User: Fold this.
Amino acid sequence: MADIDFAYEVAADSAGFPMAVSIFADDDDVRDAMREDVSAAGFTLREARGLSALGDGGPQALGELVLLDCPVPDAAALAGLMRMDTRVARSGARMIVATSAAGLEDVFGACVESRPQILVDPLRAERVIAIGRMLAEQPKLRLRELSETDRLALLRLTEQVGKIAERLDGLDRNGWGQDNGAGPESRSAFRFESPVDGYNARQAEPLRRSKTPLPSARLVRKIIAARKARARFVDPNLFADPAWDMLLDLTAARVEHQRVSVTSLCIASGVPPTTALRWIGQMVDAGLFERVDDELDRRRAFIRLTDKAADAMARYFAEVGQDAVAFA
Assistant:
């Protein structure tokens, strides 16, 4: 692809003032990289501090965008994150939170009000792409008008950067593609494992009945197994369909009287966790998924089908009948 130069104006609000960003990260290198990236995006830096500053709640105003790096949050960091979540929601700002696979459940549970974009073990390129998405979604931002050709080129470029970043990350973590003897699943850059022995991402919950009965869990699990089997024969990226895979998983869980954690649902999606989290957000917006906070532990949350989605899935399976495996 030929070199493309997208000349943006400085990101500004409706009055023409540069948009501001607040950064919170303990790692000096990460904090410095964030500074460079937000500067390149046209923001002005309002503050760049460690995670201990999350709980300050002082008079200093937040930026319109908050970038937060919280890979393995401890109790103090989670308490600060919960306060920041409320501040961001009340101020109308947007927030991007980077964490690790081990910290995902805690971070997701702590962010109730602001609905941030959560990145899991992100590469720097993924952070930049996330900032770009915020630029596109923030109505206050004022960017130079792009032609339709530029818009399409930018979209393709963004997708390519993300895929290249993922591949490079996988090569770097696994000796540039050499077999480490642990099998193909262990070489995935985004492979999730249970945090501890006996970890149970699913817990029993009451089942709401659909107007049309849902299919048996056995049938849905058979469909899920058949979809996973394709990966043994063809490149799974050719058939990535995270929304449908998550719908199937939550349908089976509903029939089985189980609750599904966000980590478990990310695994079921078959795509990198950061991508899965964006899909979960879109499905919530569409009224198909809903977040359910754990009544015993407010730091933990689950995802389940809405009644609307359950009824739709029940009608779908009633339509296709016993041929559901072939259609899915």
Summary: The radius of gyration is 21 Å. The chain has two domains: 20-144, 200-327.
